[in-house]
Amino acid sequence: IPELANEQAKKLVHELQVHQIELELQNEELRRVMAELEESHKHFFSLFHQAPLGYLLLDDVGLICEVNETFCRIVGQHRSELVGSPFVECLEGPGRDVFLARYRAFFRNPTGKHLEVLMRRHQGSAFHGDLKGAVLSTGLGRQQANNLPRLLLAVTDVTERKWAEEKRLQLERQMQQSQKLE
């Protein structure tokens, strides 16, 4: 009986050693996948924050859930001041009412739609912003644990383009006026 128990103990020790080796291999694979995931996260973080456009992530009532560094630079505010605040506070003039009136429809189906609004900077003059959106139904960021849809809003400063259009229209009017006088 002691020999049998000794033999069983050796067999159990051997099985435990095999399982330990398997667990070590699985842990090594897990560490490798975690390192790849961390690298992917850093890459995404860099792309999101250094993009040439301002990006915001809004919830269904228009609160800012996430914002990139480019948008923060455009409006001259820190991320902590923007996250959790209503996006409409970034707007000026009639653009506020237009945005509020169209937000629900824009949120439901932003494809192919865009809004041009006057946006405020923390300091300095306002600028013309072109807003384009896309609905994200999958989680983006750690705050979105409940997987509710979010609106990814791309903001482009189109002030120079608007100024050039106004200048062109002004020149056209002057040309028409001078032709009438002639």
Notes on the structure:
The protein is of the alpha+beta class. Helices cover 54% and strands 19% of the residues. The protein is built from 5 helices and 6 strands; from the N terminus they run αββααβαβββα. It has helices at 2-50, 69-75, 79-82, 94-108, 159-181; strands at 54-58, 64-67, 91-92, 114-119, 127-136, 150-157. The protein has a 6-stranded antiparallel β-sheet with strand order 2-1-6-5-4-3, with helices on both faces. The protein is elongated.
| Unreliable spans | none
Distance between the termini: 124 Å
Largest sheet: 6 strands, antiparallel
CA-atom Rg in angstroms: 29 Å
Mean pLDDT: 87
DSSP helix fraction = 40-55%
Note the overall shape: elongated
**Alpha-beta content class:** alpha+beta
Number of strands: 6
Number of helical runs?
A: 5
Spatially, the strands of the biggest sheet line up as 2-1-6-5-4-3
Strand content bin: 15-25%
Tell me the series of helices and strands, N- to C-terminal: HEEHHEHEEEH
Topology, element by element:
Layout: H1 2-50, E1 54-58, E2 64-67, H2 69-75, H3 79-82, E3 91-92, H4 94-108, E4 114-119, E5 127-136, E6 150-157, H5 159-181
Antiparallel strand pairs: 1-2, 1-6, 3-4, 4-5, 5-6
